[in-house]
Amino acid sequence: MADDRKLTTRAADFSGWYNDVVLRAELADYSPVRGCMVIRPNGYGIWERMQRALDTMFKATGHENAYFPLFIPESFLHKEAEHVQGFAPEAAVVTHGGGQKLAEPLIVRPTSETIIYSMYAKWVQSYRDLPIKINQWANVVRWEMRTRLFLRTLEFLWQEGHTAHATHDEAEEETRIILSIYREFMEQWMAMPPVTGLKTESERFAGALRTYACEAMMQDNRALQAGTSHNLGQNFAKAFELQFQSESGSIEHAWNTSWGVSTRLVGGLVMTHGDDNGLRTPPRLAPIEVIVVPIWKSDAEQARLLEAANRLRDDLTQWGGRGDDRLRVRVDAREGVKPGAKYYEWELRGVPLRIELGPRDLEKQACVAARRDTREKASLPLDALAPAVSALLERIQSNMLATARERREAHSIREPITYHSFRELMAGEGAFVYAGWNGDPEVEARVKAETKATIRCLPDPEFRSSPAPSRCLVTGEPARHEVLWARAY
Prior knowledge:
The chain has helices at 14-24, 41-60, 74-77, 81-87, 113-123, 168-188, 235-239, 264-273, 299-318, 339-348, 359-363, 385-410, 419-427, 441-451; strands spanning 28-30, 37-39, 64-65, 71-73, 92-97, 100-108, 132-141, 155-165, 195-198, 210-217, 223-233, 243-245, 251-253, 255-262, 290-294, 329-331, 353-357, 366-371, 377-381, 412-413, 432-437, 454-459, 481-486. The protein is of the alpha+beta class. It folds into three domains: 14-273, BirA Bifunctional Protein, domain 2; 288-392, Anticodon-binding domain (Rossmann fold); 412-486, 2-Layer Sandwich (Translation Initiation Factor IF3), CATH 3.30.110.30.
């Protein structure tokens, strides 16, 4: 379990605080392989909950799971020129196997568009074979030079969806459906409210027609690209001869989409909700929702309280008020560890609710419930504990979303701002800045070079300002678009 050293504070060093939380909340650890990580049970438990929620949402919209190989022939990557240009610098290449040099080098999967669409080309002959809507849960490898646990590692876990459609409009609809699924998941499960919108040409996925993204604000006011959904057009279909006979008899190329989120979401959860006491996990994603800490001083009290704590745990886990999603409860029955030390450890690990049970509580047939999000305490009666705990966890979930949304809006700037003030802001505390842009890629590149801020997206209508900005933030020329500027991870 975690030690009792104080964490680096967010105000003193946000990056140092983040690393402290990830390591000491036992989410992950450094691997012997540079740039890779070991995901520990506490971190993997969160990822498992994420997987289950997203998998259910994908299947509810007609998607199926499959699996494709880790190794991709090098020639496949070269079939789509823009794709190879985008991924070649990050590719890991296998040149030898079984003690011999390979006839053709193999790329270790950085993403799977090429191999998946080569298979779709074998499976599709007619419009009746469409759409194909497949997702896979897998690992990928990208040879990053600068790595950070969860946020950017050489190998990471993700899901990648790949679909094929008969028309552009069907593919575009699919792209937007997935974006809405990601947003719903981030809001309702992660309590992390993203801004959704279209990426600029310079920021779109290599080989895509257009890219949509979820951009979430972290507590240091930087953006995290938390998920992307790409309308690939017909680029990959043409490269891999993914064709079908249309209803009218003509031969057409399919329209493709791809989309994905990764274990980067665990890092986003830490940076959205963590505090100077450690991790705060939204209840819906917490591997342990409730930790029960019995408190005793004598052997007689110990036996009585452990029995009561175990009975309480059983009552909570067997309660059927949430259907198949039973409350996830653990009892901390360790001997030789003071209650305060136990409280510290479970707070650090982010358990949403702590139940304290002492001799006096037992006499009153009550317990003390301590919330991780606000650290507030309240006495709850034991005879109706399960529904009260379930309701309290839902309030914690809702409060965490509301707090994150309020914080995002408090650090978002929509009123006119000079470029000079913008540069000072990005060099300092940062913000989400909604401002006009004249559409010139050279202006976009200039801002990135001068401030390290980028256009995170052209926001969807519900996120746009009213009235819309009329002038470009940088040049003062008429604005063609409203865009969201921020520094990002």
